[in-house]
Amino acid sequence: MNYVSLPRVQHIVASGFIAAVGMWVAWVSYTQQPAEAFLFPRLISTVFVVLAVWTFVKAILGWTKVGHGVSRRDFVWLLPGLIVALIYIFWAAKALGFYTAGTIAFFLLLSFYDPAPHGEAKTWIKRVIITAGFLAVMYGLFAMLLKVYTPREIFF
Amino acid sequence: MEFLYYFGDVFTPVSFGLLLLGTIGGLILGATPGLSPTMAVALLIPFTFHLAPVQGLILLGAAYTSTVAGGAVSAILLKIPGAPANIATTLDGHTMAKQGKGAQALQLSFLASAVGGVIGVLLLIFLTPVLAQWALAFGPSHLFWLAILGVTVIGSLDSASVVKGLLSGCIGLWLATIGFDDIMGAQRFIFHPALGGGINIIAALIGLFAIPQVLTMFAKGRNATNAEVIEVEKHSIMDAVREILRRPKALSIGTITGSVIGLIPGVGGQIAGLVAYDQTKKFSSEREKFGKGHSEGVIAAESANNAMVGPSLVPLLTLSIPGSPTAAVLLGGLLIHGIFPGTDLFDNHPDVAWTFINSMLIGQILMCIFGLYVAGLAARVAQVPQSVMAAVVLGLAVFGSYSVQSSMGDVYVMATLGVMMYFLERFGFSAAPLVLGLILGPIAEANFIQGSMIAGATDGMASYFLTGALNIVLIAIVIASIAYSVWMELRSRRYTSKEEIMA
Question: Is some CB atom of chain A closer than 8 A to the CB atom of B446?
Answer without folding.
Answer: no
